[in-house]
Amino acid sequence: MASSKSFQHPSRLLAMASICAFKSDKLLEHSVGRIGCSLGDRAYVVPVSYAYDGSHVYGYTADSLKLHAMRENPLVCFEVDEIDSACDWRSVVASGEFEELAADEAIVALELLSTRLRVVSAAAADTQCAAHTSVTRRGRYGVAYRIRLTEKVGRF
Questions:
Q1: How high is the pLDDT of residue 29?
Q2: Strands 56-62 and 42-49
Q3: Which of 35, 81, 101, 139 is the most buried (most CB within 10 A)?
Q4: Sign, CA torsion 29/30/31/37
Q5: Distances from the Cα of 43 to the Cα of 27, 48, 70, angstroms
Q6: pLDDT tens digits for range 6-19
Q7: CB-based contacts of 121: which residues, under 8 Å, 6+ apart?
């Protein structure tokens, strides 16, 4: 029989993870994460480039299944991880609400995203990516959006 001392109630684990806000914010400073959303009875997870301002994740997407899913059900999750090995990794899963942006808010979101991707690309000496961000790719119709984060939990 397992010792009761080794078991921690899930609410205690969530509280412990929430205490580590600064660590979760460090993880959210990456440039690629994953959005989890649902459309009808199907779950959908997709990688995205993003910018983070401390309370919102900003992105840009073409007219896609992801966009239709987030419009239908704006309650989404956002995941970011750092993996050093199969036994050494950290992750943050944040819950939030999708919001489509227009006019000045969309312009601000695109500027944040473009700046973030150029900084990351320059740091990696990836001049190809720095000159060709996801904001300008393919010349297709797109939508700027933000996800207002309401909760962050994870393994640090």
A1: 79
A2: unpaired
A3: 35
A4: negative
A5: 24, 16, 11
A6: 555 555 555 444 54
A7: 127, 129, 130, 133
Query: CA nearest 152: which of 79, 82, 91, 93?
Result: 93
Which residues contact residue 50 at a Cβ distance below 8 angstroms, ignoring those fewer than 6 apart? 31, 32, 33, 57, 58, 59, 78, 113, 116
Largest CA distance in the chain: 61
Any idea where the domains of the chain sit in the sequence? Answer: 10-155
pLDDT at 3 over 50: no
Sequence letter at residue 62: A
Nearest-angstrom CA–CA distance, 108 and 82: 28
Q: What residues form DSSP beta bridges with 61?
A: 143
Give the single-character DSSP code of 137: G
Q: What is the pLDDT of residues 62-98, one digit of tens each?
A: 888 999 999 999 999 999 988 889 988 888 899 999 9
**pTM of the predicted model, to two decimals?**
0.75
Residue length of the chain: 156
